[in-house]
Amino acid sequence: MMTSRIPLAALLAVLATPAFAAQQSVTLAVPGMSCAACPITVKKALTRVDGVTRAEVDYDKRQAVVTYDDTKADVAKLTRATADAGYPSTFKEATK
Asked: Does the pLDDT value for residue 38 go beyond 60?
């Protein structure tokens, strides 16, 4: 009797699991960076967002490329994080 419950439990676990997460990458324009230390603050703010797996901030281009789990984060959360750190950002483009 116990063996018949295991496949049913496995099936229910699969059905109850949310859709698989997809890694997304976006480029954010961060025009307010005015010194070489600014990218450190921006990167720290972005990496504290739940779901962010990578953030590369380029001072010369005034932008950040962010990779994140789309089930946990989105562009709104990313731009809110930079704005809360004092560096408002805007969506520039989706990257691959």
From this structure: yes
The position carrying tokens 């994140």 is 68
Name the burial class of residue 29, with classes exposed (0-12), middle (13-18) and buried (19+) by CB atoms within 10 angstroms of its CB.
middle
Burial code of 6-16, b = ≥16 C-beta within 10 A, e = fewer?
A: eeeeeeeeeee
Which of 88, 91, 70 is closest to 31 using CA atoms?
88
pTM score over 0.85: no
Distances (CA, A) of 52 to 5, 20, 74, 86: 37, 16, 9, 19
3-state helix, strand, coil in the chain (%, to 5): 35, 30, 35
Q: CATH number of 21-95: 3.30.70.100, 3.40.190.150, 3.30.420.10, 3.40.50.1820? A: 3.30.70.100
